[in-house]
Amino acid sequence: MNNIFTYTGNPFVDAGITAMLVWLDKGKPEEIEDYEVKSLFSELTDLYVQKSWNKMMYSVFPNSKLTNPSVKDKKGEYDKLLNELLSEVVTLDSHGNCIACGKRDSKRYFTKTQVPLTGTSDFINFFSYGNGGADYCSACALAIQFSPLVFYKCGNLVCLQSNNKEVEKIYAKKCKSFIDVQKATKEYTGCNDEGYTNPVSLTKIWSRAKSVYAHLPHVTASLFTV
Ligand SMILES: [Zn+2]
């Protein structure tokens, strides 16, 4: 089944989609097949339970099974969540109440445990109608699980969003190379990290990035700190 994903304008969903496109060597979000997404689960869970990656999950997916010390089989539990989300995925429709894609209805509410920068379930003023979480469809929530692959470590973690999807892909390919080295050497260090320790350095990073992407027209980018 394809026609599951489409760019949404939500930085975390789009970052996850871009990561999947690069990892699967695909062109458009709509071309991604459900079995291909499933084929990435093992790599994702392997990575997120590595000590350096797992440490970051406390700020990305707080209170999740990945970070709960009482959960012994973190890989198994996270794999279960990914498979549950995948089993709930349906193809894109023309409308829906998902706050990211707007093309499918949500099947459950999501909190900051599954979606970065979202409130907790008891933080009811944060959500529409006082619901215990945000309305994301399971496909968008699943895409978000891939977004840490392309986060940038800079003191805090940063999520890049650009109006030019090729720029996002070029950047995601750099992240994949960074991770491929970690897998090959079995020396896991976490998200893409060029040694910057302070988000103030982002201005330097961006001015350097602009020179790299200068040949691409009308590129803008936003950075979201996780
Ligand atoms: Zn959605």
Automatic annotation (TrEMBL):
Pfam families: Cas_CXXC_CXXC. Residues 93-152 form the CRISPR-associated protein CXXC-CXXC domain. This is CRISPR-associated protein. It comes from Thermoanaerobacterium aotearoense SCUT27.
